[in-house]
Amino acid sequence: MSLVTTEHRDGIAILTANNPPVNALGHPLRAALAEAFAALAAETPRAAVLRCAGRTFFAGADVREFGQPPQPPAIYEVAAQIEDLPFPVVAAIHGGAFGGGLELALGCHGRVAEAGAKLGFPEVTLGIIPGAGGVVRSARLLPPRDAVDLITTGKRIDAGEAQRIGLVDRVSEGLLEDAITLARQLADDMPVPISKRDHPEVPSTDFWPAQEADVRRNAKGVEAPLVALDILQRAYAEDFETARRAERAAFERLRDGEQAAALRHVFFAERQAAKTAKGEGAKTIETAGVVGGGTMGAGIATAFLLRGLMVTLAETSGEAANAARERVQKAVGAAVKRGLVQDADVVMARFSVTTEYDAFSDTDLVVEAVFEDLDVKRQVFARLEDAVRSDTILATNTSYLDPREIGDVLRDRSRFIGLHFFSPAQIMKLVEIVPVPETSDASRATAFKLVERLGKVGIRAGICEGFIGNRILKRYRAAAEELVRQGVPVAEIDAAMRDFGLAMGPFQMQDLAGLDIAFLQREAARKAGQDVPDGLSDVLVRAGRKGQKTGGGWYDYREGDRTPHPSEEVARLLASHVRGSADMVRSDIAERLVAEMAEEGAQIVAEGIADDAGQVDLVELHGYGFPRWRGGPLFHAERQGAAEVERVLGRAPAPALAGLLT
Ligand code: NAI
Q: What's the pLDDT tens digit per position in 529-578?
């Protein structure tokens, strides 16, 4: 079947595009549309309807063309061609109209959207802006506030909202009929094309500065939303053609820039992760148990509750169970405030606490989140196996223990798996999914499906100390401590990482999380006979400095205040460990630490602990606040190249990383 077919109904031409699966506007489809409209121009029907076959209207550009040289006709040329026709064209939108697809619809003279359709400009999430007239036409169609919202956030709106702001003319239950009806009406009274219209509303002079502050805050370092805002401002001030050229130039500059390259990398890595997640035999989890209601158990229970699961949480005593309930109640309350759920009571009605494992007799899955202690965890699973159904998935949230040793106590390990959530579990998106050798494909697929349902990103991790994320974290901290030993000030290192784009530097982060966790883990390893040298943070813990909770860690804190102040006591405690007075610029500090992370990440891939570099990058993005627009440590190292990585490390990178660099 050809990409675009044309039929006629009582003087109305109906063009149907058919480019499965999502009618992406790749070059062949753009060419076919241009050709079909050119042929139609010669026929001059009364009016035309543009629609798509399959599950959606044009869902946007073709991702396979990302990063390729553009081939004409561009989407903006097709949109202009439609606009210039002597008869009206109505876009009939079902499924979704996104990015270039929506821009094409804005070239049309009218738009009808099926109830349930979604519309949006996701460009900024890929580091670009709409470059086919989407910004400039929005300025002539929408009130300024709505245009800013739509274009700078990348959000999707539904058909009703689209009608409310004026993006579509009608919401429809019988799409083709309604589109034909509108086409007929417009033929009688041909509307002025959007590009030739006046602005529906001209913003006041203080409008733009106020918007900029908001947009900057939400952009989290991504340049595109601010560029979109700038072009939008110009679109309200300048003539259409001048603003359109500015839009195109800005689009091309962003498209060819580093941020867009990084965000495309993340886009493809996430697609890859979603593919990995699809497996045979996945079951839907409706009822979940959680054992342990501390920081993690309460967070995991909340994450389940917020997505509609029934949850039972077991603790060691009635008192501990009540404390856990309060933690969950508080977290659910916070979720209500953020608008994630409406009614805390409705959510809490699905939650119960217990001290007896009998309560798990009919749960689909139980996650263990008790103390990080092998014996305690093994006891929990031994008891669980007798309390649950034979098909209940049993998961451990261990951070550092070997899941094989935990699962060892089970008779049936095919249903056992590691599900490593990150703190706070109701917020952080990452879950490392750690199968043991005996884990069945169905159990694994079920775990991925559950994580997806939670709105989180599941990344397969192999078994090693710290799995993917905490193993890199350990390396990162050690590298940061090494810089301190060389004489780089703690505050300078944290500032360097913030400048790089992280919300926090490594030392601030440790003060927040507590220095004692890693310390206790090292102590346990020492007790088990391993030779673990003291880190600088161990020196601080031994002096009672465990972080914010003790009033001081790497920094001093004043009562009731989280502002870090450089600490004289720390300087004194560490004086004998500092060997030099290194003078490094902040960018080199950050690049050194990121290169060390990348080196560990590359080794993790080489060992098969992670599937590929993109998956490692996703772990850093979703679990550790690595800036999305940097793409992740491995992507970043690749872009820096071998020579630069060698320069910042002060040595040749290890073979696994060297192999990824050019
Ligand atoms: P926590 O100390 O806050 O909570 C542990 C809870 O388990 C306590 O409330 C305790 O009463 C309960 N508990 C102990 N034995 C139990 C038993 N036999 N039955 C029922 N409940 C029992 O510890 P946290 O931080 O929540 O850690 C739990 C697990 O999650 C550990 O394996 C830890 O390594 C892991 N984890 C921790 C992260 C963190 O950032 N804190 C992040 C990811 C994983």
A: 999 888 999 999 999 999 998 889 999 999 888 899 999 999 999 999 99
Mutate to test the pocket of ligand 1, among 378, 399, 433 (most ligand atoms within 8 A of CB): 399
Mapped onto helix, strand or coil, the DSSP state of residue 90 is: strand
| Closest residue to atom 25 of ligand 1, CA basis | 295
Catalytic residues, which ones?
A: 61, 100, 103, 123
Least confidently predicted of 200-204, 233-237, 487-491, 574-578 = 200-204
Token pair recorded at residue 581: 């007075």
CA-317 nearest atom, ligand 1: 11
pLDDT at 1: 64
Residue 530 burial by Cβ neighbours in a 10 Å radius (0-12, 13-18, 19+): exposed
Overall average pLDDT of the 507-528 stretch? 89
287-460 topology per CATH? Rossmann fold (3.40.50)
Complex confidence, ipTM:
0.97
CA-423 nearest atom, ligand 1: 40
Indicate whether 67 pLDDT > 80. no
Residue 64 predicted with pLDDT over 90: no
Q: How far is CA 54 from CA 21, 182, 450, in A?
A: 7, 22, 28
> Are the CB atoms for 31 and 44 separated by under 8 Å?
no
Which of 371, 374, 406 for mutating ligand 1's site (highest number of atoms within 8 Å of CB)?
371
Average pLDDT, the chain: 95
pTM assigned to the model: 0.93
Ligand 1 lining (C-beta closer than 6 Å): 291-297, 314-316, 320, 369-372, 376, 380, 397-399, 421-423
Please identify which residue in the block is written with the tokens 């990452």. 430
Q: Determine the distance separating the centroid of ligand 1 and the alpha carbon of 531, expressed in angstroms.
A: 26
- In angstroms, the Cα distances linking 378 to 372, 384, 402 are 11, 10, 11
Give the CATH number of domain 465-662; options: 3.40.50.1220, 1.10.1040.50, 3.30.70.2470, 1.10.1740.10: 1.10.1040.50
Domain-by-domain residue ranges, the chain?
4-256, 287-460, 465-662
Q: Ligand 1 centre and the CA of 541: distance in Å? A: 21
What secondary structure, in 3-state letters, does 415-463 show? CEEEEEECCCCCCCCEEEEEECCCCCHHHHHHHHHHHHHCCCEEEECCC
The SS3 call for residue 84 is coil
Determine the distance separating the centroid of ligand 1 and the alpha carbon of 289, expressed in angstroms.
Answer: 14
Q: Which fold has domain 4-256?
A: 2-enoyl-CoA Hydratase; Chain A, domain 1 (3.90.226)
Pocket mutation for ligand 1, best pick of 290, 296, 378 (most atoms within 8 Å of C-beta): 296
Residue nearest to atom 14 of ligand 1 (CA): 370
CA-proximal residue: ligand 1, atom 15 (nearest) = 370
Residue 290, class by beta-carbon neighbours within 10 Å (0-12 exposed, 13-18 middle, 19+ buried)?
buried
Q: What is the mean pLDDT of residues 118-133?
A: 97
Question: Do the domains 287-460 and 4-256 match in fold?
Answer: no
Question: Ligand 1: which atom is nearest the Cα of residue 400?
Answer: 34
